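User: Let's play a game. I give you a shape written as tokens, and you guess the letters that built it. Ready? Here's round one.
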């Protein structure tokens, strides 16, 4: 789709399993596992093919670059880094940066589409103020949230606005780091911004101490990524497929 075949060639190798008629139970289970993986791959590929090139680039940068031995040099500059919105049935897909004005743009999209029940997020983050406003609005409207790609920085704050906050396999990441000003300087731990974040997270029903500790675990140019069980145990997520159940509020 994006002409990056050279940097993903190492991911396209699969050993052919034993397909003999007299398989052991373990060999049969291995084939079932491979078949399920291929089915998942086909499903995701069909979904990605329906996206615009701008959306494909956002997902590539968020979920592929710098991971799975794909070099950071494979990053593709986005012409429109701000959030892009797309409605499918009762789901509003939101991909891209949370820039100033994001909360208003999200409100307009919801107003135009009264049947929306779930906000599906994928973002590298952005404006904390807009993320907090968006999350409060999502909760006031009793909407749910899920992930369609990795969700970093300010994005988890939007995610926590959902009444039900679900993460499906293959488990997009939720990542935290210290907040920082537009000049790149980290926000001091005692700043009122962290007080506002703590109050917000508590009202959303998640563990505010865990969220703040997660933020302080990584500098602005790094990312702390908890596993699914940890997200459930601290009620950042209310359900992670095949892993855990949290609480809805």
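Assistant: Ready! My guess for every position:
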């Amino acid at each position: 789709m994006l002409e990056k075949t050279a940097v993903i060639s190492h991911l396209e190798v699969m050993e052919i399993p034993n397909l003999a008629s007299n398989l052991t139970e373990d060999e049969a289970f291995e084939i079932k596992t491979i078949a399920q993986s291929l089915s998942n791959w086909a499903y995701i590929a069909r979904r990605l093919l329906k996206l615009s090139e701008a959306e494909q680039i956002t997902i590539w940068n968020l979920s592929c670059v710098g991971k799975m031995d794909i070099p950071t040099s494979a990053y593709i500059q986005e012409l429109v880094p701000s959030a892009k919105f797309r409605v499918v049935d009762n789901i509003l897909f939101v991909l891209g940066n949370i820039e100033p004005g994001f909360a208003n743009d999200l409100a307009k999209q919801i107003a135009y589409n009264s049947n929306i029940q779930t906000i599906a997020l994928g973002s590298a983050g952005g404006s904390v103020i807009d993320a907090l406003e968006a999350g409060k609005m999502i909760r006031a409207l009793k909407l749910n949230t899920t992930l369609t790609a990795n969700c970093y920085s300010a994005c988890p704050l939007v995610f926590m606005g959902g009444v039900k906050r679900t993460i499906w396999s293959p488990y997009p990441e939720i990542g935290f780091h210290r907040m920082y000003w537009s000049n790149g300087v980290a926000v001091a731990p005692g700043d009122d911004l962290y007080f506002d974040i703590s109050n917000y997270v508590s009202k959303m029903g998640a563990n505010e101490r865990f969220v703040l500790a997660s933020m302080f675990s990584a500098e602005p140019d790094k990312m702390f990524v908890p596993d699914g069980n940890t997200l459930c145990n601290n009620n950042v997520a209310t359900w992670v497929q095949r892993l855990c159940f949290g609480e809805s509020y």
